[in-house]
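Possible race condition, two jobs.
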Amino acid sequence: MTDMEENEIQSGQGPGIEVQAASSSMQPSSAPELSASKPSGMEQGSATLNEALSAQKPSTMTEPLGNADNMGQSQKIENVKSSQLDTQEKDNSLAQQAETAQRPRVKPGLVDVIAGESKGFNANIQPYLPGELIGGSIPHVFGTEDEAVWNAAAQACGTERVHYTYTVEGGRIWYLACPSSLMASNPDSWCPLAAALPGNSEHWDKETVYLYEQEGMASALRWDQETGRMQVFLGATRTILPRMQSMDANFVTVNSETASIVMWHNRMLHTEKLSRALIRMLIFMGVGVNAIAASILFISIISIAFIHGDLNKIKDDTDQAAFKLMENAAEVMQSDTIRHMARIQHLLDNISQSNGYLVRYEVSGKRTEWNAIVPTALSDQARTDTKYVDVVGSKVKKYVAKVTKEDEDNVRLVGKK
């Protein structure tokens, strides 16, 4: 660079500054544009700057104009940076929401709903690889799966407080378990390696080795081809992965974001939850029964209050029944039963005196008819003895039996009234 060029730059008349001044005077609202001028255009740039300076007021200097443009440019750069940061934050939030939406969520079960713990149920279950993980298989006996797995896991872990999960396949129960104390810092978690158990979402076949790695720890799940036993390997990543890679098998890495969540089971916690559900259900049933009884009692009280004691109809019915009963009693007292009994006794006595016997006595309304068999020789005496005299008012009526031949030795007396 020549001495003339250095003087021009130091005095504010260099190529870059003249373009900046010209652009700032012509377009104040737009950002300044810097262009690298060739050395051959130095004189042309100086003339342009002189023209721009002559067009401004005397108070407008080149240096303050350049500072204002620099400040505007810095502010615009900061605005661009802030907008980029906002866009990046939005992208991160959208990515996080998409990841959360893709992650399977666990819904509360029926026992949680009955126990009233569905609102406090944590559906955001996080993957966690326990430091002590065991696995195995036991024969399957229908109806005793939980008890059998808990017994095997308790013996293997040396404590009854264990978390376990299992599947049933091929007549055997395949399970993973760990001591419950390992969940101290990860209470709402699940083991992604459990998704590789037979019957779960990540299981392909028993010839494949299933791997899962988390925070420097790695685990592997495989089946021995000779014995068919399930083997669980757990340790540091730098030791487990080379060991697994040395095996002649296919490898599948379990993805905790897409695998179906397999929850841990804890027998004691499940028993306590069932107790809470039972107590809550009994309380609600008691409250319901009491509410029904109270409603029935309330309805009864209201019904009694609105019912009027109208006993007139009952009184009338009672009077009619009593009157009818009195009429029946009067009819019984006025009946001719006693008179007929006396008449029959009289006939029997008189006919027996004539060596005869009474064979028929019929009462039909007010009409009476009787028949008797007596010897022929005593028929006249029998007729006289069985004569009946009835007094009606001032009239006297006599009824004498008629005689008809019955056989050679006897006759029939027929008496009518």
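Job #2 (started ~2 s after job #1):
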Amino acid sequence: MKKIQKYLIIIFTVLFGVWSIRGTVSPLQADNARRGAGFSADMFPTIVSASAGEPGFSFQGWAAFNHIKVRAIGGHLYLPPELTGSSGFGNQELTVAAVIADYMFGDHFDGFWIGAGAEYWGNTISHEDTGEEFRWNNYVLTLGGGHIWRIYGNLYINPWAAVHYITNPREFDAAGDRFSQRKIQGSFSMKIGYFFDL
């Protein structure tokens, strides 16, 4: 628990520092505040799941006020055996739900951004020889960043990368093989989305 608290303090200190350096006007004092809401789809779950012969998706909806954005994310993907990181295990299925807060450096919900938040991962994996199945949940802290380019009006693309800290990594043994989660994992992808000025 102390480690989790330490990482939360670091994450939110970074976000507060970035916001302070930028000199953003308080939302309560802003006369010309910019508001928006949008949605996007992430390409990574679709492509990776397709390589495993399964459908996958990740969608998010968001609301923003000036430079601050809050995102709600949901996704489902399948990982091929070469991405499980453990010999003898496969058919890994992952359901994700997350809430992330971002700071955007651009003036119209674009430009570079940095964000942090919490995620829930629901996992299933099975041993390739015995068929034994394992199910578990992970609680994850995330820190990420990227760049939003508006390519036509409010249509945008968003390449991004993130680091994920799993607070409760798991290990499983079956038929002499061991599946072991890495506590710190990375990811990167491309989102495409659209937003509305409110």
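Residues 11 and 71 are 16 Å apart (CA to CA).
Logs attached separately.
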